[in-house]
Design a protein that fits this description.
By secondary structure, the protein is α/β, with parallel strands linked by helices. The chain is 39% helix and 16% strand. The chain has a single domain (7-171), classed as HAD superfamily/HAD-like (Rossmann fold), CATH 3.40.50.
Length: 172
């Protein structure tokens, strides 16, 4: 199970994992390590962990929808999502709560069927629309305090793979 903070709540967390039908992920700081590399022409370069990508593909293969929600916009995000077959990528999002609610309602989902993964303050809006709230290990204090689970791995360093494997193992 991810993180050690909530070991005593194992069965309650397992029930939450079984209900998940949609995973909402922040990008910078969750799927990447949060650093931005700016090239000489102003292009943004980001580093994604391939293990996280496989974890997301496995979730989708099991019928769990995946959407990326980020406040920034970059071609790197669009390109990586396309490689993974992720069709729902929302960039330049100023209010993640509104988008998360719209995505949930569009699918007819209850909050309990949504998992949100974040690392920084703008991600708390997604948490309000999710039944399972996940903070990566290096998330800011406010996000860790609101999370049901804190991963052992840092964002961009296998945290998403860790969560994916845990959800899939619970559902097996």
């Amino acid at each position: 199970m991810p993180g050690q903070k909530y070991v005593d709540q194992g069965s309650a967390l397992q029930q939450k994992a079984k209900a998940i039908r949609l995973v909402l992920l922040d990008v910078d700081g969750v799927l990447t390590d949060g650093r931005l590399w700016i090239g000489p022409e102003g292009e943004t370069v980001k580093c994604f962990d391939v293990k996280d990508g496989l974890g997301l593909k496995r979730l989708m293969a099991e019928g769990i929808d995946v959407a990326w929600v980020t406040g920034r916009s970059s071609d790197a995000v669009k390109g990586r999502a396309k490689e993974l077959g992720i069709t729902e990528v929302y960039q330049g999002v100023s209010d993640k709560k509104i988008l998360a609610r719209d995505l949930r309602l569009k699918r007819g989902l209850k909050r309990e069927e949504v998992c949100a993964v974040g690392d920084d303050l703008p991600d708390l809006g997604m948490f309000e629309e999710a039944g399972l709230k996940v903070a990566v290990a290096n998330a800011v204090k406010e996000v860790r305090e609101q999370a049901d689970i804190i991963t052992k791995n840092k964002g961009g360093r296998g945290a998403v793979r860790e969560l994916s494997e845990w959800i899939l193992a619970i559902r097996a």
